[in-house]
Amino acid sequence: MKLIVAVVRDEFALSLTENLTRKGFGATKLASTGGFLKAGNTTFLVGVPDGQLDEAMTVIRSVCKSTKGEPSKVAAHPAAGGADPISVGGATVFVIDVEKMMKV
Ligand code: 2BA
């Protein structure tokens, strides 16, 4: 089993929840804050069988779109010196091997 930890922009959170649950994936949403922009984002914990990792990643990719190349959607931010707009990825994803999952 794998644990997907996906940091996504808040605007994608509802759609990602719906699409994951529609495909039968269990997901937990945590309110989180990016260290750089110090703005709210959403962190998903998704436990998936090894054989379904690709399917879950396909869902995440299809929902969470990077704004890179679309500068109108990302404002210049004081954290970057107020210069160029910051491009924020669609999702920052970590995949962790799970030794055991239990529901007690
Ligand atoms: P933030 O830390 O608020 O970062 C938002 C965006 O700011 C980043 O987008 C990146 O484009 C830019 N950025 C971050 N650190 C920077 C720096 N030192 N100098 C210049 N620009 C910088 P993403 O890379 O797509 O990251 C989106 C969010 O994903 C992050 O929000 C953070 O919450 C999470 N994240 C990204 N990398 C991570 C990591 N290695 N570990 C844990 N969380 C991470």
Tally the beta strands.
4
Helix fraction by DSSP (H/I, runs of at least 4) = 10-25%
> Any low-confidence stretches, pLDDT <50, length ≥5?
69-73
**What is the number of helical segments per DSSP (H or I, 4+ residues)?**
2
Strand order of the largest sheet: 2-3-1-4
- What is the CA–CA distance across the termini? 18 Å
Describe the overall structure.
- There is one protein chain.
- By secondary structure, the protein is of the alpha+beta class.
- The chain contains two helices and four strands, in the order βαββαβ.
- The chain has helices at 10-22, 53-63, and strands at residues 2-9, 28-33, 40-48, 91-97.
- It has a four-stranded antiparallel sheet with strand order 2-3-1-4.
- The chain is elongated.
- It starts with a strand and ends in a 7-residue tail after the last strand.
- Residues 69-73 have low confidence and may be disordered.
- Residues 7, 34-37, 39, 41, 80, 86-89, 92 line the site of ligand 2BA.
Task: Furnish the topology, listing elements before pairings.
Elements: E1 2-9, H1 10-22, E2 28-33, E3 40-48, H2 53-63, E4 91-97
Antiparallel strand pairs: 1-3, 1-4, 2-3
Ligand 2BA is lined by residues 7, 34-37, 39, 41, 80, 86-89, 92.
